[in-house]
Write a structure and sequence with these properties.
Layout (H helix, E strand, L loop, with lengths): L4 E5 L10 H14 L3 E4 L7 H10 L3 E6 L2 H6 L1 H11 L3 E4 L9 H20 L3 E5 L7 E2 L2 E2 H7 L6 E6 H6 L4 H7 L6 E4 L1 E5 L2 E5 L8 H11 L3 E4 L8 H14 L4
Parallel strand pairs: 1-2, 1-12, 2-3, 3-4, 4-5, 5-8, 8-9, 9-12
Antiparallel strand pairs: 6-7, 10-11
Helix pairs in contact: 1-2, 5-6, 8-9
């Protein structure tokens, strides 16, 4: 079994998380599948205390949240308090606001992210940036993600590398894990498949990503958490997250 811990990004099953009752029923199902770690996103208007209690009741550790850029910018004290209440180690920003998606913007955001990360670090928390495919647009001789990484503090600003979106951007997930070694304590696992001529995300092990090389790269990079996520599922979402978990078991990862 791997030393890396397998978790679930709850955004995958967001349709089941709109009420406290639905959240409680679904967290039990998540735990019954075998997950022990979760990342919060896509949850309905449910009190944080209740989310924490339900997770505790089901033996689920909250590793991280996806938190909007505006909250980091305007309400850092509240962000810190939220993560302390939840017992979460990391605060991750789920996407770069559109106004930063240019060469100057990636530089500015890299510096701003360092400031966010410094404040979180002083509170004993980690910061991570979650990518999509647009960071693989090239500006001069550098990709957007390169600019962001170069202009941010590598000791403070982590990258929550989403492997599907790296592939979708025309790059190698394993190569980028090695390139960002030491900065990717969390990765998002979803597979990449061609279905009816379209590029889609898929359950781990059901698509075309080269998982043996990816897991080797994750070990080399010091990754701690392998977090299953699907933006869209062609199957019922709980069936998809169970399929990913069983495939990861068969791969010896959990």
């Amino acid at each position: 079994m791997s030393d890396m811990k397998v978790g679930l990004q709850l955004y995958t099953i967001r349709d089941h998380l709109k009420t406290l009752e639905g959240f409680a029923e679904t967290m039990k199902k998540v735990a019954d599948i075998g997950y022990q770690y979760v990342e919060l996103a896509g949850v309905g208007p449910i009190d944080l205390e209740d989310q924490k209690q339900v997770c505790d009741d089901n033996g689920l550790t909250i590793v991280a949240t996806h938190t909007r850029y505006s909250e980091f910018r305007d309400a850092m004290d509240a962000v810190i308090d939220k993560h302390k209440l939840l017992g979460a180690e990391y605060a991750a920003i789920p996407a770069l606001p559109s106004e930063f998606r240019n060469a100057d913007g990636y530089e500015r955001f890299g510096r701003e992210a360092t400031g966010f990360a410094q404040q979180l670090d002083e509170a004993g928390l980690g910061f991570a940036y979650h990518n999509h495919n647009f960071e693989f647009e090239k500006y001069g001789d550098r990709l957007g993600l390169e600019i962001l990484a170069d202009e941010s503090d590598p000791d403070l600003v982590g990258i929550e590398l989403d492997l599907y979106w790296v592939q979708h951007g025309g790059a190698s997930p394993a190569a980028w894990m090695r390139r960002l070694s030491g900065r990717i304590e969390m990765v998002h696992l979803k597979d990449f498949e061609i279905y009816d001529g379209e590029q889609l995300d898929a359950e781990v092990g059901e698509g075309n990503l080269e998982w043996d090389d990816i897991f080797d790269a994750a070990r080399e990079a010091g990754t701690r958490y392998l977090i299953v996520e699907q933006d869209f599922c062609r199957r019922p979402s709980l069936e998809s997250v169970e399929m990913s978990f069983r495939n990861l078991q068969a791969m010896g990862m959990c």
